[in-house]
Design a protein that fits this description.
With 317 residues, the chain is mainly beta. 7% of the residues lie in helices and 37% in strands. It contains 3 helices and 18 strands. The strands form 4 sheets. Strands 1, 2, 4, 5, 6, 7, 9 and 10 form an 8-stranded antiparallel beta sheet that branches. A 5-stranded mixed beta sheet has the order 12-18-17-14-15, with no helix packed on it. A hairpin with a 2-residue loop joins β17 and β18. 37% of the residues are buried.
Length: 317
């Protein structure tokens, strides 16, 4: 019996012991949210995600599910428990303000958040939630999908997002590639109940305006006009991207109401970065022809389209 017990204790965990995580917020990745940063798989001072790509930063310990703008945050996006468990810690009361270098957070980098303990030594942590939105209490039992609060901008956060940390026996686990002994880029089963495709960068938004928008308007989600008068000073098409890499190409094209090409411009991405905005247009010396103008933003990498979006504006007499 003693030998049998010892053998059972030394048996590695089976697939049945591995959790299957639900999406931890109410959004559709690739449509109204995206993963901006993955867990850092580089043991040194550099950063790389589980595919060996650059969507991470040094010592990042979780997955960042980002919203396109502050407008979606203000509308309210619910954060949900990825697994059943017991709430072991909460924090609320921190303001939703973008973090800037030099800000002293005194260990509260997570901002408003929730920690849940699960069976088998697993734990999940939900960070940067909206002030006053925490909907659970310490010690409370929750089921998968239980509402925990809302996505916010608290703590060390420069854009509205949910940071999800997954830990097993205290060690960080990448839900996209849980076996840390394998090199990045190695195919392996994920922890997601419904597989989440990897987005290697893409378009956050595109729109028309009568001038180049400022960055604050992009962050706020207020840079788009659905109609413009024919006598506008300019017609501008802009695009906002995440995860562009050096060598990528962004093409912005405007088609006139009669189907003719109005303007086409291509930008070469000069360096890999988290987010990038570009715009192009024409200063108008005479009124535009009224009608529906169509804008197309296309991001290509190594000659392949990785993201594309369409937008329109109605030009009125």
């Amino acid at each position: 019996p003693a030998a049998l017990i010892a053998a059972l204790l030394s048996t590695p965990a089976t697939a049945q012991d591995t959790p299957r995580l639900a999406l931890p917020l109410d959004c559709t990745p690739g449509r109204n949210c995206h993963v901006q940063n993955y867990l850092d798989r580089d043991p040194g001072l550099g950063a790389r995600d589980f595919t060996c790509g650059p969507l991470s930063y040094d010592a990042h310990r979780g997955t960042d599910f980002a919203l396109p703008s502050l407008a979606e945050m203000r509308a309210g996006v619910t954060v949900r428990a990825a697994l059943p468990g017991r709430v072991s810690a909460i924090r609320d009361g921190m303001a939703d303000t973008a973090w800037t270098p030099g800000t002293v957070l005194k260990g509260r980098d997570c901002g408003n958040g929730v920690v849940i303990d699960h069976a088998g030594g697993w734990q999940t942590q939900y960070c940067h939630m909206r002030q006053g939105s925490i909907a659970v209490q310490k010690g409370q039992q929750v089921d998968t999908g239980a509402a925990l609060g809302l996505v916010g901008l608290s703590g060390r956060s420069q854009f509205p997002h949910l940071h999800l940390s997954v830990r097993h026996d205290g060690a960080d686990v990448d839900p996209f590639a849980p076996d840390a002994t394998l090199p990045c880029g190695t195919a392996q089963p994920t922890l997601w109940a419904v597989p989440l495709p990897y987005e290697p960068g893409g378009l956050l938004a595109a729109g028309f305006l009568d001038a180049l928008p400022d960055y604050a308007a992009l962050q706020q989600g207020t840079a788009t006009r659905r109609s413009l008068p024919a006598a506008s000073p300019s017609l501008v098409l802009w695009a906002w991207l995440f995860g562009p890499r050096q060598g990528d190409r962004l093409t912005l094209a405007i088609t006139a109401p009669d189907g003719a090409s109005y303007l086409v411009r291509t930008f070469d991405v000069e360096k890999t970065q988290a987010r990038l905005y570009r715009g192009t247009g024409r200063r108008l010396h005479a009124p535009l022809a009224p009608g529906l103008y169509t804008g197309r933003a296309t991001l290509t990498r190594d000659g392949q389209v990785i993201s594309q979006t369409l937008t329109t504006v109605q030009v009125t007499p």
